[in-house]
């Protein structure tokens, strides 16, 4: 059974393992190496959220997003899935979480910069109603 939860400091090693492994699914083919300093900054930022999906105590996927309360927008910074858990619907669980969060907070737009060559990632967002604007996908919550 899968469990969706917000990340804690203790999750650094598992999140960095998923983030730093190229064979895993990501929004972009060029990724940043997640180190302890960057992870701590994410955890301490009031405008950033990191959600995880775990199975049997192991993290299988995560989604990181930034909130801009002034413009009522969310920018999905990263969505990464361990290759062993691809095609299991984990992206859907994480996506629904960010969409519910956006609805509760009165967010009007979601953004995601998707530069991967993995067409499945692009199709996932397009099927959800996102529109491509160059390398950025946008979802207007009020349409």
TrEMBL record:
Domain N-acetyltransferase, chain residue ranges per copy: 2-143
PROSITE patterns to which the protein is assigned, alphabetical: GNAT (PS51186)
GO function terms (MF aspect): acyltransferase activity, transferring groups other than amino-acyl groups
Protein name per its UniProtKB record: N-acetyltransferase domain-containing protein
Organism of origin: Virgibacillus oceani
